[in-house]
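Let's practice the habit of predicting before peeking. Look at the sequence and jot down your guess about where helices and strands might fall. Then scroll down.
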Amino acid sequence: MSKLNDLKEIINSGKFPNKYNEFGGANLIITKNKDRGFHEGDTIIYSEHAAALSWLVDQLHGIYNEEINYANKYRFYPTIGELIKESLTSQDQIIESMLFVVDEIEKRWGSK
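Done guessing? Here is the structure:
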């Protein structure tokens, strides 16, 4: 079974963490804190599901680590943020949003 399929199984089961360090780096910030500082050009996701979404970013980083480098990380991480923004139209749709992000990253970065 592929790493991405394993990740999708975890997401579908709902067994992702609800307590996890919020992600901040490479022009992407995921936080619950609306007062969190940021820099111009950052993609910012404010969500009550910041922990789960940050965990997802870390999982995708682990899967695509060999492809991510000092230059393209500024494309990889903000792309994840834009996909989250596009798909997370309701806070109730966290699983659907996470699966959408995984599917879109797979299309853009290849199967794993």
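How did you do? DSSP finds four helices and three strands in the chain.
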